[in-house]
Fold:
Amino acid sequence: PDELVALFATMAAHLTSEGRFAFDVLHPAARAQGLRAPHFRERRQRGLRDAALHRWRARAFDAEEIDRALAEVGLAALERYGSFEGKLLEPADALHVCVGERVSSRNGSA
Structure:
């Protein structure tokens, strides 16, 4: 999805050549468990200077979608977890915690 590629492109722009990143997203199993995570975006009204927050619908991403979006901007996942306690990701997990780096740093080039 375009929004995922845009997010990862921004992340890549701020990452040093040897840096690593981590993020978490809802895993598709979250929907089956009834979990929701609200997302917000800024909404401006014409003629008003103050911005308002507007709720977005939550969206779960599977590992394949994440990998495709990461690859588009030269990043790759190294580790995947189903919790912040270091539990390896399983299909039934609601949370997907991903740790990764630039693809170039994996093969020794910068």
Observations:
- The first helix runs from residue 2 to 14.
- The mean pLDDT is 81.
- Residues 2 and 69 are 8 Å apart (CA to CA).
